[in-house]
Amino acid sequence: MLFALVGLGCYPSEADFNSELLRITCRIYLECASEDDAYSLDVSTQEECEALIGSYSVDPDDYYEGCTYDKKAADQCLDIYDETTCGDYQWDFEACESVYTC
What we know:
Structural class: mainly alpha
Number of domains: 1
Largest sheet: 2 strands, antiparallel
Distance between the termini: 31 Å
Number of helices: 5
Shape: globular
Helix content: 40-55%
């Protein structure tokens, strides 16, 4: 039983999920995007990217108000995106669609 309880602590909180997704998004962008990319941003550092994308992001507390957050699905979503390389640089939105149930 102790093992199960320890495992529960490994899943991201909702706030951690959203900040980690932003971090991963910018890492991938900075490693993979080219100047010819249709979504080219004028950023050159992780911090600049997170500030810019974060300024356009909706507040999850407002956007997902009344929705249920699934920590396990969030963990799986982050794992999928964190393993993304430039060779498979495309967003698999289905990988994260079960994080919130509204």
